[in-house]
Design a protein that fits this description.
Strand content: 5-15%
Number of strands: 14
Largest sheet: 7 strands, mixed
Oligomer: single chain
Order of helices and strands: HHHEEHEHEEEEHEEEHHEHEEEHHHHHH
Helix content: 25-40%
Structural class: alpha/beta
Strand order of the largest sheet: 5-6-4-1-7-8-11
Radius of gyration: 23 Å
Length: 498
């Protein structure tokens, strides 16, 4: 018995030491490193209410993403000159990590570093660049999408090409002077490996980067390997299908806002439907390999181990993104320049909630909307549990206990309609009193590009109900569901918008 007690004591000491090392590692991460940009707040009660938001159904430790299935693609890279399209989300589990308790704690707090230096036993993830170099893959270059290789650039901020300080590899920006790889960038390249975490929304630009990468590669006879990752919004197929006249870098394909597909599936669809601007002979010779996620189910909740971009710092923001991003075409703030990007809606003059939130420029939002003003904001605390309007912070604990709530997961048109009506009511009163009015659609062309059509904006302006708007999408959504079937890699169980 005494021997067993001693063994337990030693185990406890070892676990305690590992946790202490992990804590030191986490607190040493700086904003200038490759660490995930995680927003913090001085409002302790609000932070407490937003804790525990990670989806518990499935996390990154329970799946083998495409990049971790080395046996499926390393043989393709043998003897080849390889270019990687990656960013801070291109993480693979570190084989040296054995302690599940430490790993789960790091994942749960989104405190993960990418393209790390010396591999330590307490680092649960390493960057794909490091993992492939350790496996003697001949890497010749890195290409990076919007937000850059380190994922620290704000939305729309141009990214310059660079040299990776650690490996000496050239980093070519695909969100600077060009969004499509040039012939010079692909010189001495035999194969391109694409591994970036998407969020499943048409206007999230990583899909457009994938399109241009395949277009450039196949035009030059270069093979493309897509290492697939889950879609955190994969349960939904919803929203208007893009019309060709509204095609842009924030929407290039005739797919709905929420397409319910992974980038690997979309890559297959882009090739299969011949959406690339290349010659027919290039299509016939195109070599695309998709390495699927092992044991992935489309309807499972998936909690990302790292923020996919600076203004999507947690699961809640990713869940709200499909709806709140539409406000980018309006005068409503969605929290850029605050501690809650894509987690609030607010305006300096229109009342959206009881929270007063100051907007200030930061690294993720160098020029935020309504900069240096106070927003009258509603801050969301749970995306899956809100009342028929909004969940106010002051009453959130009460309403969280009320299970009779409607989900905002997916695309919630009611949120847009309500915001437009608030502006209309404000302007009615302002006009009657001779005061200045406020314009809702400040960027109508951009709103239409997000929607992929001008119909949604017109429907909102003419007072259509959410049911009427949603009904107008159904025919094209049904056609899309049929069209995508040959390209699906995972179980096709959809959750339609309620």
């Amino acid at each position: 018995m005494s021997t067993n007690i001693t063994g337990y004591t030693k185990s406890a000491l070892i676990i305690g030491f590992i946790l202490l090392v992990s804590f030191s590692f986490l607190t040493s991460c700086t904003q200038n490193s490759l660490s995930t940009h995680v927003y913090t707040t001085d409002n302790k009660s609000l932070k407490a209410k937003q804790s525990g938001l990670a989806n518990e159904d499935l996390n990154a430790n329970q799946l083998a993403v495409g990049a971790e299935r080395y046996s499926k693609y390393l043989p393709l890279l043998e003897g080849k000159r390889v270019s990687l399209v990656v960013n801070q989300s291109s993480l693979v589990r570190n084989d040296l990590v054995r302690d599940d308790l430490v790993r789960d704690d790091l994942v749960r707090n989104n405190q993960i570093t990418g393209h790390s230096g010396t591999i330590k036993a307490n680092q649960p993830y390493q960057h794909l660049v490091d993992a492939l170099l350790q496996r003697n893959v001949d890497l010749v270059s890195i290409m990076s999408p919007e937000h850059g290789f380190r994922g620290d650039k704000g939305a729309g901020e141009k990214v310059n090409s660079d040299i990776d300080a650690k490996t000496g590899l050239p980093i070519y920006s695909l969100y600077g002077a060009t969004k499509k790889p040039t012939t010079a960038m692909l010189e001495n390249t035999d194969i391109i490996v694409f591994d970036i975490q998407d969020v499943g929304v048409r206007f999230y630009t990583y899909l457009s980067t994938l399109h241009y990468v395949m277009e450039a590669a196949f035009a030059q006879g270069i093979q493309v390997v897509v290492l697939d990752r889950p879609n955190p919004n994969g349960r939904y197929v919803d929203g208007p299908v893009l019309k060709p006249a509204f095609s842009s870098f924030i929407g290039m394909h005739p797919i709905p806002v929420l397409h319910g597909m992974t980038l690997g599936e979309l890559a297959q669809m882009i090739v299969g439907e011949r959406w690339l601007d290349i010659e027919a002979t290039n299509y016939n010779q195109a070599k695309l390999t998709v390495v699927p996620v092992e044991d992935y189910e489309r309807t499972a909740h998936y909690s990302l181990p790292v923020a996919p971009s600076p203004n999507l710092p947690n699961d809640l923001s990713i869940q709200l993104y499909p709806t709140l991003c539409f406000f980018e075409g309006t005068d409503v703030s969605i929290g850029r320049g605050t501690n809650f990007p894509f987690q609030l809606i607010g305006h300096p003059n229109i009342e959206f909630g009881g929270s007063q939130i100051l907007v200030k420029a930061n690294s993720a939002a160098p020029h935020p909307k309504h900069e240096n003003t106070l927003l009258n904001a509603h801050v969301f605390t749970r995306a899956d549990l809100i009342d028929s309007e909004y969940m106010d912070l002051e009453n959130s604990s009460l309403k969280l206990q009320n299970r009779e709530a409607s989900p905002i997961s997916g695309l919630k048109i009611e949120t847009l309609i309500d915001a437009y009506s608030r502006f209309s009511e404000y302007n009615r009163i302002a006009t009657a009193s001779g005061s200045s009015t406020e314009k809702f659609f400040t960027r109508p062309e951009f709103f239409d590009k997000l929607a992929g059509t001008d119909a949604l904006r017109i429907q909102i302006q003419t007072g259509k109900t959410s049911a009427e708007i949603r009904q107008s999408w159904q025919k094209s959504l049904s056609a899309f569901r049929e069209k995508r079937k040959p390209y699906l890699l995972y179980e096709d169980i959809e959750r339609r918008q309620e």
